[in-house]
Amino acid sequence: MIRVAIVAARIDPASLLAEVTSAGTGATTLFLGTVRDVNEGRPVTGIEYSAYTEMAHEELERIAQEAHARWDGVRIAVEHRVGVLTLQEVSVAIAVAHARRAPALDAQRYVIEQLKQRVPIWKCEHYLDGDRQWVDPSAHNVMALPDV
Amino acid sequence: MIRVAIVAARIDPASLLAEVTSAGTGATTLFLGTVRDVNEGRPVTGIEYSAYTEMAHEELERIAQEAHARWDGVRIAVEHRVGVLTLQEVSVAIAVAHARRAPALDAQRYVIEQLKQRVPIWKCEHYLDGDRQWVDPSAHNVMALPDV
Amino acid sequence: MTQLQVLLFATYADAFGASAVTVTVPDAATVEDVLAALRVLPGGATLPARPVVAIDRRYSRGGSVAVRAGQEIALIPPVAGG
Amino acid sequence: MTQLQVLLFATYADAFGASAVTVTVPDAATVEDVLAALRVLPGGATLPARPVVAIDRRYSRGGSVAVRAGQEIALIPPVAGG
Fold first, then answer.
1. Neighbours of chain C (3+ CB pairs under 8 A)
2. What Rg do the C-alpha atoms of chain B give, in angstroms?
3. What is the ipTM of this complex?
């Protein structure tokens, strides 16, 4: 069982957990990404997530399929939110269930790591001082916006 | 922030998640152990968890403190249930929050692996045929009960 | 010559001031031809040396990959989901 | 001689038919002395060669560790939490 989605509405982690759990489930893992109040020392008021929605969905689906092929029997549900999120809101939720704990833990980590590397989603941080910047994790810092 | 407990009542995973999340949280992980319907090919109707309660609590606390020392800033809540659980009920919940995902994932795995090895809790599986057996994971099988 | 639409996101969309631009390339064009056409547009000078390109919603490997009309071509800035 | 109470759980509790038993050991006793006293009780023959022992709620290392009255001594069968 695999379901992935790019969503505009608030993510409900409990519903993802319920979705992956079955009678044969012995271990369930959940990963939540949330908007935190400070990044690189600057107070953040919110993050705007934007996506190449169609490709993001397909790439997420490919990642989940890879995990499913590698850890037989894992049940996976992933939702990534887009739009403006305020502090502590959930940006991504990954729920994985399996009969045993090792595949549930391994697949969880695989999905979040691959998602971070491959899924075409971007985030623009909004700061307390009114400034905003696109985040570039590949550069371990943020890229200043051009003056447009 | 660390909280561990051995509980007799139903575990509420959402409350553990809420408990570990703070304004600085960027990643939260949840691990749930649940009672599954089949073990070693035998249909299971329920599991009775029993604990050396005081030591189980202290050992869980030590494990959480070790994780806290190793991954600075992790916030951890762990509950392990005892008593008779029916299918799909949650036996253990581990919630971990951190500013970044690696410590949240690493600490989650550390706590569940150490818990499985060290915390004095035992489970007796109840089977569809009325039989019951203590589970011995160290022997990769179950130990037959003596005729008492 | 062929006209191709290129989708732009995040910093690239900001740089070009658009979420998609149309470029004119030779009939047997490659990804490299598309990038060369983009670089001469306003904002195109800010593109990195080897931007990541997706064709039909899959990552494309290398500048010598052929492109043709009807394909969905996109430039992918460094991703930051999660 | 000293009397010590030993807590028993799971398979060990089933084997001895009790969740705690009292053993009599020499005054300067060790974990090994406690185990020897347990083995001669009804059900004691089923104990493994080196059962895990906890003293005051911490795992004890080795049979030569000293025990004394007032300590909380427990035999710990293979654990199976989670």
1. A
2. 16
3. 0.93
